[in-house]
Amino acid sequence: MGRIPCCEKDNVKRGQWTPEEDNKLSSYIAQHGTRNWRLIPKNAGLQRCGKSCRLRWTNYLRPDLKHGQFTDAEEQTIVQLHSVVGNRWSLIAAQLPGRTDNDVKNHWNTKLKKKLSGMGIDPVTHKPFSHLMAEIATTLAPPQVAHLAEAALGCFKDEMLHLLTKKRIDFQHQQSGTTQSGNMGGGAYVPHKHDDKDNTMEKIKLGFSRAIQEPDMQPPNKPWDTTGATSVNFPGVSSTFPVSVSGYQYGSSSFGNEGEGSQWSQSMCTGSTCTAEHHIQLHKKIEDDMDEDTRGKDMRNGSDIFSSDCVLWDIPSDDLMNPTV
DNA sequence: AACCTATTCAACCGCCCAAAA
DNA sequence: ATTTTGGGCGGTTGAATAGGT
C-alpha cells in the first residue's frame, strides 16, 4: 500500500528558499516549536511542504548550526567514523556539533572521497587500492592476475601518474633536504617528459606486481612506523588515544594545510599492537550513540570493519591536499 | 568577453521504521 | 494485528558559482 504524499504537490513552492520564507519559518518555530511539521507551513503562512520546512530548518536555519569550512579535526573525525560506520551520515554528524548529516555527506562526496582516493585509499573500504588488488589477486589464477594488474593500471593510472609525476617546483630542492620522504618509487623528481612518464608507469607496474605477490609487504623506501601510536583527540571520546580504524591510523597531525605541511599520520597499524583495544573503545563509543534498534543493522560498508594489516602509500602532504587534478 | 566544464551544496525524492490510530 | 502517519535517513539532482580556455 503506497503512502499518501505529505502535502499537495500542486500547491507547494519548491526550490530555493527566500529570506522572507526563512524569516517566517524561523519566527514561527521560535514561537511554537517543531511539533508537527505538516501543520507548520500552513500555520506559518508558507506554501511549502512540511518536509521541505523540516529540511530547511534542520539543515540551515537551526541557530546551533555551524556554517563554513570544515576544520581538519572535523575532517579527521569524519574519515575515522566513516571507516567504522560507513555512510551513516546522521551518526557521523552527531559527533560533530553544529554539523548536519547533509553537510557531512556533501563534504564527504565532494572533498574527502577525492582526498582518500588521491592517497591511494579506497574511500569505501578505507584500504589501500594496492591491498584490494592483492586481496582480489589471491582468488585468481596467475594469468588472470596479470590481466587484473593491467585493468587496475587502467583504472588508477591518472591518479597515480598525478601523484608520482606532479610538478612541484620546489620539490627538487627539497630532495637534498630532510622532511619529505620520496614518492612511492623514491628517487629524485624531475618534471616529467615522455620518457619519465614511461618510467613512472614501469614503477607503478612494479608496485602493483609486488603488492599482488606480497600482500603484507611494506612499501619501498619507507619503513612503516609499526610502533606508531600517534594520538588523536577524537571528539566525544573521553581520552586521547590512538585511533585506528580499519587498520589505519589517521594521526593527530592536520589533514589540511595548517601547520608545517602536516598530514595525516600514515603510520601503519600492524594489527597486533594497536588494534583490538582501541577498536573496541571507538566502536563502543559509536555504538553507544546508536539507537538500540539500529544497533543490529548491517554496517553498510560491511563485513570486516576492523580488519587490520593495511598499508598506506607514502605520499607527500601536498598531494594529500591536492590529490588529483 | 563569451563560452564551456567542473565543483559545490541546498533541496528534493523515495524508502524505512516507529508510534499512533 | 493491521493500517496510517510523521519523521528520519541516505542517495541523487540541479542551480549557482568558480575556474579554465
TrEMBL record:
The keyword Metal-binding does not apply. Residues 9-61, 62-112 form the Myb-like domain. Keywords: Developmental protein, DNA-binding, Nucleus, Repeat, Transcription, Transcription regulation. GO terms for biological process: anther wall tapetum development; pollen development. One of its GO terms (cellular component) is nucleus. GO terms for molecular function: DNA binding. It is found in: Nucleus. Residues 9-65, 66-116 form the HTH myb-type domain. SUPFAM superfamilies: Homeodomain-like. It comes from Dillenia turbinata. It comes from the Eukaryota. Residues 175-196 are annotated as: Disordered. Pfam families: Myb_DNA-binding. This is SANT/Myb domain. The keyword Cell membrane does not apply.
